[in-house]
Amino acid sequence: MTKPEMLTIGAFARACRLSPKALRLYDELDLLRPARVDPDTGYRYYAVEQLEQARLVAWLRRLGMPLAHVRQVRALEPSAAAREIRAFWARVEAETAVRRDLATFLVDHLSTPPRKDTHPMASTDLLELRYAARTDVGLVRAANQDTAYAGSRVLAVADGFGPGGAPASAAAVEALKFLDAEPITAGSVLNLLEDAVQGATQAVQDIAEAAHEKTGDERTDDVGTTLTAMVWTGSRLALVHIGDSRAYLLRDGALFLITHDHTLVQSMIDEGRLTPEEATTHPQRTLLLKALTGAPSSSPDLRLHDAEPGDRYLLCSDGLTRAVPEHTIQDLLTTTPDPDATAVALIETANANGGPDNVSCVVADVVRADGGRMRVRMQ
């Protein structure tokens, strides 16, 4: 006979809104054990005091939280559990934002009837890029592990790290250059860019393995690179981003950061564990959570941006953003018309502020095709 404070599995399931099947699964996974199991029948009984834990499990599962994570949260004190749930949801929202951008583009692309003048060559006759790329070793580093590139359709910055950092960043950018060869439609650019990133990833892995063959070290994730790149379709720019290099858009005098740093401190800011001010002095502010490395890498962010005449884009390594305040970057982008002169001014300002790292800048203006020919400057 059951004790008064015990509930049968059926009664407990109705009270906590979990099915008996789910309760049996959570018992097997050691997530929610019954208070007593009848030794003869194997029937499960639950204490009334377990209802709150069961309801928490049910709510977390409705949030989409994985079972392993639910187990961790359930074991925490209420205040710590609340922080962990907030952090989990911040990650979900960040991932959802990337998918939302792609879904918005697909809906727009599939809902708009094709026009007779949408051939890629016709669109590139309307708008074009005027661009420049510059990179500098800075004042502290012994070598430059950055790579910067600007072409008629591809803009890219990569910041290498580790013993093979320089060839890794160069290889990642090189893997994208074939997209410069011919016009690309907005409908195909994301697939092409994803294929190019797979090639970049493989190239970095090959370099990491080669670097460690010399030392006999099996670890390859200490060699890699960030990658922030954009591909021009004639009306849109497709963005690929992984790491802590950045892309900015200057539109109508306002500066917008259009990438999200894949760093430990940014994740702590997103989760409410750190303020942006605290992040600037955090001892692990350069620790990357995502990059292209010799080990299996996380997927980069991919999205599309509509371009407008007068837009100015800046791609840069963290050697710029660590040394130059954002308001100064905005001032230089706003007041220096020529892309090459702007890139030079940005690098000179970073070096004037100590030049603590390699610094690379790609500046690209969206202009009407009759507004001047395109120019490229590599260094």
Task: Tell me what the structure shows.
β8 (227-232) and β9 form a beta hairpin. Strands 5, 6, 7, 8, 9, 12 and 13 form a seven-stranded antiparallel beta sheet that branches. Strands 4-15-14-10-11 form a five-stranded antiparallel beta sheet. The longest helix has 34 residues, at 78-111. The protein is of the alpha+beta class and 379 residues long. Helix content is 40%, strand content 21%. α7 runs antiparallel to α8 (186-213).
**What would you report as the Rg, rounded to the nearest angstrom?**
26 Å
Element pattern in H and E:
EHHEEHHHHEEEHHEEEEEHHEEEHHHE
Q: Tell me what portion of residues adopts beta-strand conformation.
A: 15-25%
Oligomeric form: single chain
Q: Determine the number of helices (DSSP H or I, runs of at least 4 residues).
A: 13
Number of strands: 15
Mean pLDDT over the residues? 85
Largest sheet: 7 strands, antiparallel
Distance between the termini: 84 Å
Poorly predicted ranges: 115-125, 372-379
Helix content: 40-55%
Alpha-beta classification: alpha+beta
Shape: elongated
